[in-house]
Amino acid sequence: MSDESKAAEKAADKTAEEQVSEPETVATPVIEVPDAEQEPAASPAKADDEDEGFSFTGSLPELKTKVLALLAAGVLALDVLTKVVSVAFLEDADPIQLFGGVLYLTFVRNPGAAFGMGEGMTWVLALIAMGVAGFIYWISRNLRSQGWAVGLGLVLGGAVGNLADRLFREPGPMRGHVVDFLSLFDPYGRVWPVFNVADMAIVGGGATIIVLALLRHDYDGTVHKDDPEPVAAPVAEPVAEQKQAPAQDSLQESK
């Protein structure tokens, strides 16, 4: 064997020994720790909600309590102001004709309900007005309908306006007479009972609520619609059974 072949064998043996002696290195995965200051990525669901501007609280109509309160306060203020002016200028004075006799400004102290009804039951009417005000306050906690807010605001303002007369006017608390000063077609209420601003608000608000109820609009903003009539599924007609001839008849016909 020549020297070159011996040198080649030694080199090959040395390379084999190095491969056996050196252990195989396994690459370890590197785990990246996120920076504490880096904000976590928003979830897809949250990102979609932010893009659409949707929120669970925004899915319901907002409360209409402010509309009710402002309207009731406006009706009460107008009712009190007109009654004060009526006491100052119309009491012990002749009726004033307006619009060619369609409307008269007169003065009446009414011990009964709206439009002169229920005389002699002033204290009962005062309790009813208190109950109406409390009921409207209870409803207002979930009032989300604009129409209902208008109707209830009118009723509340009118009820409180007449209740104030029954509490603070003569002849005493819970027995006070309500000031009326508007009369239609006659100066003394012989065609239509004499009324005031509070009476008009109560009637108008009540009519609004009745219309909304007939249209199936609830005070919480819910609108009820008629359920669609169920469509009857088509009934499959039975297929007439074909009579099969006996096997013997078929054989005879073939012959």
Care to describe what's here?
Helix content is 47%, strand content 7%. By secondary structure, it is mainly alpha-helical. It has a 3-stranded antiparallel beta sheet with strand order 1-2-3. A hairpin with a 4-residue loop joins strand 1 and strand 2. It is elongated and about 145 Å long. About 6% of the residues have low confidence.
Question: Number of DSSP strands?
Answer: 3
- How much of the sequence is in beta strands? 5-15%
First-last Cα distance = 101 Å
The helix content is 40-55%
What's the layout of helices and strands?
Layout: H1 3-21, H2 44-52, H3 65-89, E1 96-98, E2 103-110, H4 122-139, H5 146-168, E3 178-184, H6 197-214, H7 247-254
Antiparallel strand pairs: 1-2, 2-3
